[in-house]
Design goal:
The complex is a heterodimer of chains A (158) and B (719). Chain A has 158 residues and is an alpha+beta fold. Chain A has 2 domains: 2-75, Beta-grasp domain (Ubiquitin-like (UB roll), Roll); 84-153, [2Fe-2S]-binding domain (DNA polymerase, domain 1, Orthogonal Bundle), CATH 1.10.150. Chain A has helices spanning 21-28, 84-91, 101-114, 120-126, 136-153, and strands spanning 2-6, 9-13, 47-50, 53-56, 69-71. A 5-stranded mixed sheet of chain A has the order 2-1-5-3-4, sandwiched between helices. In chain A, a hairpin with a 2-residue loop joins strand 1 (2-6) and strand 2. The longest helix of chain A is centred in the C-terminal third of the chain and has 18 residues, at 136-153. Chain A starts with a strand and ends in a 5-residue tail after the last helix. With 719 residues, chain B is of the alpha+beta class. Chain B folds into 3 domains: 7-209, Aldehyde oxidase/xanthine dehydrogenase, molybdopterin binding domain (Aldehyde Oxidoreductase, domain 4), CATH 3.30.365; 216-285 and 346-422, 2-Layer Sandwich (Aldehyde Oxidoreductase, domain 4), CATH 3.30.365; 293-337 and 434-713, Aldehyde Oxidoreductase, domain 4. In chain B, helix 13 links the parallel strand 20 (452-461) and strand 21. The longest helix of chain B has 28 residues, at 116-143. The radius of gyration of chain B is 27 Å and the shape is globular. In chain B, 57% of the residues are buried. Classes of the chains: A alpha+beta (158), B alpha+beta (719). The interface between A and B is large, with 58 and 62 residues.
Chain lengths: 158, 719
C-alpha cells in the first residue's frame, strides 16, 4: 500500500512497492496522459512533476514518492485555463502524433518555473525528451512564446 | 449510422469519458474538442458528411492519423467544395467494419506512401460538391425557387434574387432526403478559397491535454495486461518455458505460448513485464543463429559484381559508352537496416467473446487489422469490430504487418478476458520490419566537358516485395527496390543502366518512411556529387545542366539554392551540400549547412527544403511534415543502424539506438514551390535528400567522401 498525492488529490494504492510511478498513474489511477516510451528514462514521454521537479516516472518506484506532490499533464491546466505552455503548444501547432507531447509539456513547464526566460542553450540542456515526429523546431518556438506570455501576464508557471 | 449494438462497449465508452472527458456515443470513439458524436443516419448528407442542427459539420476521415496531418488536410478537401464554415468542422474517423458493411463507401483505408491526399482527393471533393448541391436543392425547394438562383458560402445558402438565407444546419435534414446528383462539377483550382491556405490542425487540443486517444490508453472492465517475449533470432521457435519460476509472483494469470513467443498475462502490465523478464525460456534459433551483419554485408558486396542481377532500366549502350568515356569514376555505397521506433510502442487491446472480436489498435490500415483479427480468432470478418485510435507514430511500421494484432487476439482468445498487449521498447527495437539493407556500385563515364555520358548502377539488397507479395516478382525485377532510379530518375544521361541483385536475409523487412527512396537517394545524390567533383564543377550548377530538360525539377532545385543563398559564402566553418530527389510524385531539393568540429562531431545548422507537391493543400501540413522528415532522416543519417549478431538484433532501446534530440535540431526552412496540376505526397518526400545533402556538405568541409551510413561509424576528426 502506498499513499500518493496526484494533482492535489490523495490516493491509497495497493501496488508492489517497486512498481514505477508511471504504471501506478496509468494502470491504477487511470491517468493515461503520462506515456510509456522506453522504460529506462531515455525518452521522457513519462515526465511528471514531483514536488515541482521534472521526473521520468518510468524509472521511479512508487515507494519513493510517498508524501510528495505529483503533478501530471491532467493537472497542469488550472480552473479550466490552459497552462501557458499548453497555450503556446496550441497556438503554434506543436504536436504531430502527439504521443511524446505530455512529457515535453511537463518538462518545459518545469523549465519555465525554474528559468522564466531560458536561452536557447538552456533549452538545449534542459529539454532532452525524444520526439520521433520531429517537432523540435516548434517546441523551441513555443518555449520562447510561453516565456514571453508569462512575462506579459506576470504569472509564473506552477 | 448505427454500429454493432453492444451494451458492454457503451459502458466502456462511458468509462473512457469519465477518465478523459471525451463524450463518446455511437459506433466509434470520436476526437476533437468539444467532442462530437457519430450522429444518426438522418443527418448524414453523404457518407462523408454529417451536418448537425447547431451547424457543426462532421467530416469523416477514412485514413489513419499518425501525426502526418491527414485528419485536417482531408476534411479541407471536402469543405472546399461543400462551402461550409471551416470553423464549424469536426473530423471523425470512419470505422473499418462500417466501411465493410457499406460496401467500402469510404474506399481503401490503408494509410501510407504519402498517398492520403492524392488517392482520395477526387472522392472527397466530389463528396463536398454533392452535399452542397443537395443542400442548395433542399433550400430551393423550401423557397419554391430554382436551384440555379441559389448559392452557398460559409455554411449559408442565399437565394440571390431575394437575399433570403438558410443555414446548412437548418436545411440539413431535408437535404438528406434529396437524391444525390449523378454528376457534380468541381471548382477550378483558381477558385479555391480553403485549399492552399494554412489551417491549424484539428487534433491538437486533445494532444496537449493528455487525453486518452491512443490504443495504449484503452481501459476495459475486467481487463488483463500482457507482456511478450519473442524469439530473439528471427524465424526461430520456442523450445520450452519453465513456468514454475513464476510461482509465488503476484497477479500472474496466464502464460501463453506461441510457436515463436511467450506472453505473460497479469493483473498489471508491470507485473506481466517483470514476470516475462525472469521467465526461463529456451529457443531454437536454427541456422539463422549464425548470421551476422558481417555475413550479410559480405553477401551484398559479392552481389555488386554477381551475374544474377535483373535489369530495371536500360537506355542506350552503357558498357560501350563507358569504354569510350574520357574519364571513368566508380564508387560503392552501403546502408544498414533501420528500425521505425514509433514513440508509442506496438500494442493492441483485444476482447474475444463467442459473438464478437473487438480490438483497439494503432493501425495504418484498419481493414487489414480487421482481416488479421478475424483470421486469428477464426471468425468471419463480420464478427470483428476495430476501434481505430490515434497513432503514436506510424512511419510504415503499422500498415502491412500488424503482428501485434494477431498476438493480442490469440492471447485474449486463450485468456477469455479483455487483454491489453503492450510491447516493451526492447521488443519493439528487436522485432521490427526493418528498412532493408542495401548497397550500390556506381560507375560513370564523363566526356571531355565533364558531363556523364554513361551511368551504370548496380544495386544489391533485401527485397520487401519478396516478403510481401512474391508473385509480383515472378516476371521480372523488384521495381520497388529501384525507386527513384527508374523513370523517376531526374537526370538525363544518354546511356543508363540500373539493375538489382536481390540478397534476402532472415531479418524481416518492411516499409520505412519513403521505403527504398531513402537508400537510393543517398546512393544517387552522393554519386552525382562525386561526378561534379570529378568534373571540377559546382554541384548545384552541375545538377542544373543534367536537369536542362526537366523544368519542374530545375525549378525546385533553383528554389532551394536561391533561398539558401548558394552563391553566397556560408558562415565561417560552415559548409553546404545539395541534393534533389523525386518521390511520392513530388519533387524535393535540399541545401544542408553543416560543420565538422575538430573532434569529428557533425553539426547541422540549417536545412533549406524546397518541395513541389503539385497542389499544396495545407501549407502548414507541408511545413510540419518537412520538419518531421528532416528529423527522421537526420537521426538515421547520424546514428541509425540496426546490426545483427548471432541471428538477432544487437540494439535494444534508445541508449543504443539513439534518436535526434532538440539540441541537435537544425533550423528548417520550407520553401513550397507548388506548380499545381497534380497531387503529390509530402510526408516522405523531404526525407530522402537529407542524408546525401548532409554528406555532400561533409565532403565540402573535410574532403572525406561518405559512402556508408550512419555517420557515427566514420572518423571525421581533423588530421
Amino acid at each position: 500500500m502506498a499513499r500518493l498525492t496526484v494533482n492535489g488529490r490523495a490516493y491509497d494504492v495497493d501496488v508492489d512497492s517497486d512498481t514505477p510511478l508511471l504504471w501506478v498513474l496509468r494502470d491504477t489511477l487511470g491517468l493515461m496522459g503520462t506515456k510509456y516510451g522506453c522504460g529506462i528514462a531515455q525518452c521522457g514521454a513519462c515526465t511528471v512533476h514531483v514536488d515541482g521537479a521534472p521526473i521520468r516516472s518510468c524509472s521511479l518506484p512508487v515507494s519513493a514518492v510517498a508524501d510528495r506532490q505529483i503533478t501530471t499533464i491532467e493537472g497542469l491546466a488550472q480552473n479550466g485555463a490552459l497552462h501557458a505552455v499548453q497555450r503556446a503548444w496550441l497556438d503554434l501547432d506543436v504536436p504531430q502524433c502527439g504521443y511524446c507531447q505530455s512529457g515535453m509539456i511537463m518538462a518545459v513547464a518545469a523549465l519555465l518555473k525554474d528559468k522564466p526566460s531560458p536561452s536557447d542553450a538552456e533549452i538545449d540542456v534542459a529539454i532532452t525528451n525524444i520526439c520521433r515526429c520531429g517537432t523540435y523546431q516548434r517546441i523551441r518556438m513555443a518555449i520562447h512564446a510561453a516565456a514571453g506570455q508569462q512575462r506579459v501576464s506576470g504569472t509564473s508557471s506552477q | 449510422m448505427s454500429g454493432v449494438a453492444h451494451v458492454d462497449r457503451r459502458s466502456f465508452l462511458a468509462s473512457v469519458a469519465a477518465v478523459g472527458g471525451a463524450l463518446a456515443l455511437g459506433f466509434e470513439i470520436p476526437f476533437g474538442a468539444p467532442a462530437v458524436h457519430a450522429s444518426s443516419a438522418a443527418r448524414e448528407i453523404t457518407a462523408w458528411i454529417v451536418i448537425e442542427p447547431d451547424e457543426t459539420v462532421i467530416i469523416r476521415v477514412a485514413k489513419s492519423e499518425m501525426g502526418q496531418g491527414s485528419f485536417t488536410a482531408l476534411p479541407m478537401l471536402v469543405a472546399e467544395e461543400l462551402e461550409c464554415d471551416w470553423s464549424k468542422v469536426k473530423a471523425e474517423f470512419v470505422s473499418p467494419q462500417e466501411n465493410r458493411r457499406r460496401d467500402r463507401v469510404w474506399g481503401n483505408m490503408s494509410t501510407g506512401a504519402s498517398r492520403s491526399i492524392s488517392a482520395s482527393q477526387n472522392d472527397l471533393r466530389c463528396a463536398g460538391a454533392t452535399a452542397r448541391t443537395m443542400l442548395i436543392a433542399a433550400a430551393a425547394a423550401r423557397w419554391n425557387v430554382p436551384d440555379s438562383e441559389c448559392a452557398a458560402a460559409r455554411g449559408v445558402i442565399t437565394h440571390l434574387p431575394s437575399g433570403r438565407t438558410m443555414t446548412f444546419g437548418r436545411i440539413a435534414a431535408a437535404a438528406a432526403d434529396i437524391a444525390p446528383p449523378a454528376q457534380v462539377a468541381l471548382k477550378d483550382p483558381k477558385d479555391w478559397t480553403l485549399i492552399g491556405t494554412r489551417q491549424k490542425r484539428l487534433d491538437v487540443a486533445d494532444k496537449i491535454m493528455g487525453k486518452p486517444i491512443y490504443a495504449i490508453d484503452v481501459q476495459l472492465p475486467n481487463m488483463l495486461y500482457a507482456a511478450i517475449i519473442q524469439c530473439p533470432v528471427f524465424k526461430g521457435t520456442l523450445k520450452s518455458v519453465d513456468e514454475t519460476k513464476l510461482a509465488g509472483m503476484k497477479g500472474i494469470h496466464h502464460v501463453v505460448k506461441r510457436p515463436d513467443a511467450v506472453a505473460v498475462v497479469a493483473d498489471s502490465w508491470w507485473r506481466a513485464k517483470k514476470a516475462a523478464e525472469v521467465l526461463p525460456v529456451s529457443w531454437d534459433g536454427g541456422d539463422n543463429a549464425s548470421v551476422s551483419s558481417s555475413t550479410i554485408s559480405a553477401n551484398l558486396h559479392e552481389a555488386l559484381s554477381a551475374a544474377d542481377a535483373r535489369v530495371g532500366r536500360n537506355d542506350g549502350d552503357v558498357d560501350r559508352a563507358l569504354g569510350q568515356a574520357v574519364k571513368r569514376i566508380e564508387a560503392d555505397y552501403e546502408v544498414p537496416f533501420l528500425a521505425h521506433a514509433t514513440m508509442e510502442p506496438q500494442n493492441c487491446t483485444a476482447h474475444v467473446t463467442a459473438d464478437l472480436v473487438e480490438i483497439w489498435v494503432p493501425t495504418q490500415d484498419g481493414e487489414t487489422a480487421l482481416a488479421i483479427a478475424a483470421d486469428a480468432a477464426g471468425v468471419p470478418p463480420g464478427k470483428v469490430v476495430v476501434h481505430k485510435m490515434m497513432l503514436g507514430g506510424g512511419f510504415g511500421r503499422r500498415g502491412i504487418f500488424q503482428d501485434f494484432v494477431r498476438q493480442a487476439v490469440l492471447i485474449a482468445k486463450e485468456v477469455g478476458q479483455p487483454v491489453k498487449l503492450v510491447w516493451t521498447r526492447e521488443e519493439d527495437i528487436r522485432h521490427d520490419f526493418y528498412r532493408p539493407v542495401a548497397a550500390a556500385r556506381m560507375t560513370a563515364g564523363l566526356d571531355a566537358d565533364g558531363m556523364p555520358v554513361a551511368w551504370k548502377i548496380r544495386t544489391a539488397g533485401q527485397s520487401i516485395i519478396a516478403a510481401v507479395s512474391p508473385r509480383v516478382m515472378q516476371f521480372g525485377v523488384d521495381r520497388n527496390f529501384l525507386q527513384g532510379l527508374l523513370e523517376d530518375m531526374p537526370y538525363d544521361v544518354p546511356n543508363y543502366l540500373v539493375d538489382f541483385a536481390m540478397r534476402n536475409t532472415h531479418v524481416p523487412v518492411g516499409v520505412w518512411r519513403s521505403v527504398n527512396h531513402s537508400q537510393n537517394a543517398f546512393f544517387k545524390e552522393s554519386f552525382v556529387d562525386e561526378m561534379a567533383y570529378a568534373a571540377g564543377a559546382d554541384p548545384y550548377l552541375f545538377r542544373r545542366k543534367l536537369l536542362a530538360k526537366k523544368p519542374k525539377e530545375l525549378a525546385v532545385l533553383e528554389a532551394a539554392a536561391t533561398h539558401a543563398g548558394w552563391d553566397t559564402s556560408p558562415p565561417l566553418g560552415v559548409f553546404r551540400g545539395i541534393a534533389l530527389h523525386n518521390s511520392q510524385n513530388s519533387v524535393c531539393a535540399q541545401v544542408v549547412e553543416a560543420s565538422v568540429a575538430p573532434d569529428g562531431k557533425v553539426r547541422v545548422h540549417r536545412v533549406v527544403s524546397a518541395i513541389d507537391p503539385g497542389h499544396a493543400v495545407n501549407p502548414l501540413t507541408i511545413e510540419l511534415q518537412t520538419e518531421s522528415a528532416i528529423v527522421y532522416g537526420l537521426a538515421a543519417a547520424l546514428y541509425g543502424e540496426i546490426t545483427i549478431r548471432d541471428g538477432r538484433v544487437e540494439q535494444t532501446n534508445f541508449h543504443d539506438y539513439p534518436m535526434l534530440r532538440l539540441a541537435e535540431m537544425p533550423r528548417v526552412e520550407t520553401v513550397i514551390v507548388a506548380s499545381g496540376g497534380f497531387w503529390g505526397g509530402v510526408g516522405e518526400t523531404p526525407m530522402p535528400p537529407l542524408a546525401p545533402a548532409l554528406c555532400n556538405a561533409i565532403f565540402s568541409a573535410t574532403g572525406k567522401r561518405i559512402r556508408s551510413l550512419p555517420l557515427k561509424n566514420h572518423d571525421l576528426r581533423s588530421a
